[in-house]
Each structure stands twice: as C-alpha cells, then as structure tokens.
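User: Fold this one for me? It's Germination protein M.
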Amino acid sequence: MFNRRTLKLAASVITSAILLSGCGLFGKDKAVKEIDPPQDVSYLEDGKSLQQSTGKQGDRTGEVKEEQKATETVKRELYLIDKNGFVVPQTLELPKTDAVAKQALEYLVEGGPVSELLPNGFRAVLPADTRVLGVKLEKDGTIIADFSPEFANYKPEDEKKILQAITWTLTQFDNVKKVKIRINGYDQTVMPVNKTPIQDGVSREDGINMDTSGVVDITNTHPVTVYFLAQQGEHTYYVPVTRRVSNKEKDDIVAVVNELIKGPSYGDGLVSDFQPDVQLVGKPKYEDGKVTLNFNDAIYGSNKKNVISDHVLNSLVLSLTEQKGVESVAITVNGKANLVKEDGKALSEPVTRPENVNTGSF
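Assistant: Here's what I get for Germination protein M.
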C-alpha cells in the first residue's frame, strides 16, 4: 500500500472539520490541490515573457487587476533541505498564479524568490541561476519539468535530495502522479551528475530520505514512509523517512505503526514521542478509507490518563495517510474510544490528513 492521496507526506485530498493542530505545524486553510499547467513547453530568449499585458496603454484597469492579483497568496508545500540534510516539506505563502507547477519549482532555486521565505536552518535545493523553462502535464499524470543547463551545477551528494524535492513538491497536486526531467528541452534518462535513473519517471513510491540501516537483503523488502520529528530552536517539524520493511509483513498499516514505535535511527537528528512499550492490541481495521487502531495504555506515554500526545497523533495520521486508500485514522485504547487531545478536546472522530504540513515560521 503506497502513495497518499493528500504531505500529501501523499491519500486523496480530504476536506474535514477536524484537522490536526499544535505547535504551528499544520494549517487549516484549504490549499489548491489541482494543477493545469501549460500543455506545451515554451522556450523563450532571456528578457521575453510568456504572457503579454492585455491592458491598453493609458488604461489602468489591466494594471490594477494585476496589482490586486499580485497581493493574493496561497499556501504551497515546498520540499527544502534542513540542517540535518533531510528533504522536508515547509508550507509557505506564495503569490497566487495560474502556473502553479512552474512557480513551485522556481521557489526551489537557491538565491531565487524563496530566499526571503526560508525558515531558519533550511536551504533551497536547486542550483543558483537555474531557470524553469516550462512544464508539461501528460494525460497519464506524468509531469515533465524542463530546466536550463544550470540545473546540473549541484554537488553529487545532493542529487537524490534534489530529485526527491522536485518529485514531492510537484506530486502535492492531485493530478500529478510522477515526474520526468528535461534539460534545455532534452529528455533525461538519468540525473546529470551521479546518474540516478529517472527514465520512466519518479513518484512518491520511490521514497524520500531513504533509511536502509539494518537492512541486509533489500531485495526482499518494500518501502513505507513514516514521519518523525526534528527540532530547530524552539520549533518542531515533521520529517518523512522511507524505510524498507520485510516482505513477510503483509499488512503495511502494521508495518508503519511498528516503524514509528521503533523510532528514528540513532544519530540522525530525529526524535519520536512514541514509548518503546507501545503495542497494537489486535489487527487494525480498515473500512471505506478509515483505519481503526487499538493500542495498549502505553500510547498515552507520560501524559495524563486518556491524553494522547499531539506528536504521536500527528505522526500516525501523516504516516498512515501515505498509504494508498487510507483517508482517516481512528484510535482506541483497549477497545475504548475515550482519548483526549492535549488541548482537552475529546478525540471522538477519525482524524484526516491536514491540508498543509509544517506551517510554522521560524
């Protein structure tokens, strides 16, 4: 089971009155999740524009409309690199535009418009001076991103991070399933520096922030993506990590929960709120997009009785909604649904994935 359809890390986009909250990590504004990029890639000489102003000379109507449009913003998930080297979603306010895919890529460029928006400890992923020459969305959900030759001016160790950031940024839009890359109009079968394969396109199923520690035989495993925590100053944010789990584990929901309980790898800078003695009591139940998990008392951790940590809840929901067909998560403890969130509100309904992840600015 893989690929959410949203973040998302990715589970379909879901509108719900109950959204995750806490620590400024999630936003409640509904993000635009559909994309209609130009169907033909355009190549222009420097200094030329894709669109010419329709306003007549001396007529301020067109100018005023453009000024008003420029002041409107919309939330977008941009995948940036944090201080630990992880590719992490950050939800930022970008100017509203019709060319949403092209804009998202332009905001991944070092020294570009994202510079004034970067949270502390984060950096852009694409090499400086990289230009987005165009995007093209195929009927099968493949989007082709075309970059200028400067795209190849990156360090070898950043190659997979760049590919993951592009893929996960573009697949936040519902009708984008996988990504192909061109450089100056030419299709690329591999990345230009370390030759990472990209021939048939890259999707979220290819993973992000791969963690293969402890895996001896990778051929008998399959990937699942889970969300751990990282800290920047006083602020906490969620980091997606793809683990390889044994093919002997037939239930990926159980596999995800077990990986969350296992926690992050030692020394990678990530943390978890899960206690090591947390266990599932019985098999998870799945029905019409809802997963119901039944835990033992250890799910409460060090909190007061019946209170579940926001970070535990958020990690569960983000991780499980990366699985295909999972839209919401309900939690019980020893068969009883009497949990309370940290804000004192009863956790009486299933929780859906938030529209925006890591919305706090720092």
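One thing worth pointing out: Helices lie at 61-71, 100-106, 159-170, 252-262, 310-320.
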